[in-house]
Amino acid sequence: MHKTKSLSFLLTSIPRFCFILLFLIILLLVYWFFLCNSPAVHGLADISRLPQSSFFTYINISSQVYFSESQGLLYVPPYHKNVHFGSIKRKGVRGNHRHKDKERSISGEVIILLQGQFQFRIGDGDMNKYEDHQFDVCKTGIIAMKFTADKCHALKNIGRQTNWFASYYLESKEAKTPSIDRQTCKRMMLT
What we know:
This protein has 3 helices and 10 strands, in the order ααβββββββαβββ. By secondary structure, it is α+β, with helices and mostly antiparallel strands.
């Protein structure tokens, strides 16, 4: 009789234990989700809360960092610098444009794939011809691709994590903001 009571107590306490464990796991996941979606992660750091140094100062770049829920983060430096640094969220796409303008302010662009798995589409929007290439930076190492400004181009994140890339323009004239042509590239849009 004593064994029957202890067995029934054990059977009723196991579901309670599983319920408590499941509750704690859900609570931890909710906490992690809100922690990752906090403004400090998506936005900029609060400089007043960072350690101060006598060797360097912090720069306010709030007007140069852009965040899109569907694409990721993009850093565009002041107009006299031509380097961009950004991320692409899972299944996100950047590009689907070209930099063809009448003034020929830029002659080309270099895209550097820093981390992640990418699909890169490049082509001639006027002739509706394009190529698709896939890259896994973990397998190949960092990749830099150079192409002329009149080529339609786009990057898509085909991995499971956020991808990181950098790019810069090859200038033929002093350019403040290169023009972007999205209309011509619509026929070969990467989605």
